[in-house]
Amino acid sequence: MPDSTGSNLPGLLSRYQDRILTDWIAAQSEVGVLRADLMREAELRRQSRSFLSHLIAATKNGLNFDIESEQWQDVRDMLTEVTNFRVDHGFTPTETATFILALKQPIFECLRDQYKDDPATLVNEAWSATVLLDKLGLYTNDIYLRGREDIIQRQQQEMLELSTPVVQLWDRIVALPLIGTLDSARAQIVMENLLEAVVESKAEIVIIDITGVPTVDTLVAQHLLKTAAAAKLMGAECIISGIRPQIAQTIVHLGVELPQVATKADLQSAFAHALKRTGVTFSATKPAHTR
């Protein structure tokens, strides 16, 4: 019986469920959706069987093309699961969307067999199936893009954290070597990592080494000042090392002042200054003479 939209597609999906599932899995294998290096065939079968069951359940009370409606919630959840699996395992956007698009052929073949003597109905039902599957395919593509964006953002965050290591040089002395451009996002990571290290190591001296920072402009200088001020609030004195001649000239030219922040030309000088500030002294010893 046709539903309220006049479509017989819901009934056909239910009637030919087993045939459609078998032909769909075969079609996915033929077009390369089944990647043996990325997915087991058993997993593909499980996903296909589950999706088709959700699709039939969503249309049993009538065909509704608004896939954002409550009627399609389970289908959307299943598509999200299927898509995220493919994102995590390295499938391409085309391979992911083809999971849905490959379902067209089995459905069209069932429609052809069912309405071979009724061309008008065959065309109408084929169009309904096309509209529905295209919408689901586009939804899958949107989920894929969001998944990739999440992975990229997570990787960028991890790279930022890895690029701002805090190293303990001595008891109560930590160093933060900076390499590359210091933008606002990275400056926030720098400050958080540094303050956590100050608390964990009970540091009294913090050395921020900017030898690897190619340029220092007003924004970078402000980030350094904020980080130094935050460290001071935590009870740690800040030393900025790696002040090369061109950077010193730039800071003076910009009119940026570094109040109550010690600066040194290199990390070695900063470390020596930090040791002196913490009361650590060294004395040279003569090598023992052997007879």
Automatic annotation (TrEMBL):
This is Polyvinylalcohol dehydrogenase. InterPro entries: Bact_StressResp_Reg (IPR051932), RsbRD_N_dom (IPR025751), STAS_dom (IPR002645), STAS_dom_sf (IPR036513). The keyword Phosphoprotein applies. Keywords: Phosphoprotein. Residues 163-274 form the STAS domain. It comes from Skermanella aerolata.
